[in-house]
UniProtKB/TrEMBL annotation:
GO terms for molecular function: metal ion binding; metalloendopeptidase activity. GO terms for biological process: membrane protein ectodomain proteolysis; Notch signaling pathway. The gene is SI:CH1073-396H14.1. It comes from Latimeria chalumnae. This is ADAM10 endopeptidase. The active site is at 348.
Amino acid sequence: FVKYYERLSYDRQDLHQRHQRAIVSSREEDKLIPLEFHAYQRSFKFRLKRDVSVFTEDFKLVGNGRTVSAVTDVSHIYSGTLHGEEGSLCHGSIIDGHFEGFIQTQNGTYYLEPIRRLGAEESPFHSVIYRDSDIGKSPFHSDYSGFNSKGVSCGTQRLCHYLQNLTREQNPQEESLRRSQRSLDYSQTTCLLHIQADNLYYKRFGSMEVVLAQVANYIKAVNEIFGRTNFDGIRHINFKVKSVDVSQEADHSSPTYSLYIGPEKLLALHSENNWNEYCLSYLLTDRDYSGVLGLAFEGRIGNAGGICSKYQFLRDNSKATLNTGVVTLQNYGRYLPTRLVHLTLAHELGHSLGAPHDGDKECPVKTAFSHGNFLMFPRASSGEQYNNDRFSPCSIEFIARLLKAKKDQCFVESNRPICGNQILNEEEECDVGYNDTDPCCYSADQPVDRRCKLKPGKQCSPSQGGCCNHGCVFSSQERQCEEETECAFESHCSGMSAVCPTAPPKANYTLCNLGTWICLNGVCARSVCVKYGLEPCDCVTESMMEKCKLCCRHRGEPETCASTPAWRQYFGGSSILLPPGSPCVEQQGYCDKFHICRLVDADGPIARLKNSFFNFEEYKDVADWMKSYWYVLLLVMLTLAALMAGTVFLFGRNTDKTESSSEGKKSGSQRGRRARTVIYKSEDGGEDMTNICL
């Protein structure tokens, strides 16, 4: 997804020490952490200060169904501003000396991540930085964005139908009266969130500390989008996290354990819980739903979906809370950049607050090509254009309408020890959380002088890394700790440390991603066109199959765009097919598993089925065939008519014979007739007696 990034190598140890000092020091100067580095031909200088504004004062963290601590540690979350740039914002976390987050500037937004997140070599560089304009520009899985990737919608159309069928109808007069009897409280602008992170999401990041950092990062970015929007006089709408529930271990008995649960079913299971305590409840996962990255019940006046919805009986007599949504981090096997996760979550929260898709009958918004699509547009956007993170006037109108109707029902006015979070900090020898049965390390429940320390005679703990075995000794050099990838060799333990060494990269320009990309510094990073001084482009052809072939061109010369057979001197005349899921037709479609370009459909498969029954769009080819081969259709109809006539003739004769032979037996059989009484239960609960003669 990331076209270009630059590597960073600021002093991690110094940053980590300053972070640790800021936690324990009472001096204000120690609580300000300076950070400086050079990238993108400019200098970044800012001071970071602890920022817990996205969490409520009574915030709690739950792991595996129990509260981790009465006071949850969020001291690793920071924010600040760029030196000398008014209106800038920096927000992120400091974990193990890495700063991960985003920097909003006048020239765009930059994102920082640990380099290991991209699978690249960590020495001498440990972090990467990329700009929002560097996302979504590769020829395959990088040229689309969040909630409607590859042409599949976020699913609101399907959920709207589901909601109408299940929720009980409300009296519109009562709803109108209830609204008119109260005045709008403009000070209540905060929506309290419950965030559920399933085990797949937890496995993606590997620790509670990083999960909390990701959640804070998402909510801070979403608050920037909502906070700058004026919803018809309602300003400063924001979200705060009241609780985070993380599934650290896979629960085989849980109905959500299966990897083959569809997004609608997953959301329905999440909605079965009672979320009355929260304005909204969202589930974070790391599942591949082939283009669907988000799903949420759309808030409407008079139904039970969206903000402030309560736990209630549905028409099928089940109970659910429909103030829910789902967001996933994966799309066609690829991890989404942070920017696209921000847009996906903001898009789904827009649905929860009542906004339909731009371009629907309710919101016929035309695309402003010079500034890009608005946030609620159902099709993919790159995320770099001005409108991509802004609401359209129609979306603002719908959200304002719902806020005025439901906001005041649930909106509000706007030092736990580190040991036990299963993150190895500088002062800790090991950290196994609250597991008292661990053979290598004392748990956080032990006395202060022993907790998070190795037990006597133990060399290491598996919590330190993948090269410590369950016998609490370093693994031998024969032990493989990382598998070989397309761009990096396998890695083996050193026998001297519990940490798995960085895997050695394969040679640059090694082919990867089914031969369509090349490896650079151990990462499958660029199109194979780049290997020969070319750049990728969309194939110019009318054939939907040809559009799913790799095409290259000379830099800055669109007229030279051609498929690989035309570049015989580089590719030997062979044709290279794009992997399934690659965008085509300028992001308006995607390549399926048969390597055919499929144009996007904002409403998804349900709309196609509807069109088959009502609009007959799927039958255009059939109609053309019937016009050309009308005589075949006539022959089939005549054959069926002949078969029906023959059947009536044959069975009609047999019936006449049967009736004549039974006339003589009729009187005798009547003498043996007797009555039987059958009792039926009527609909109103009574009983009807009916006599049937036999």
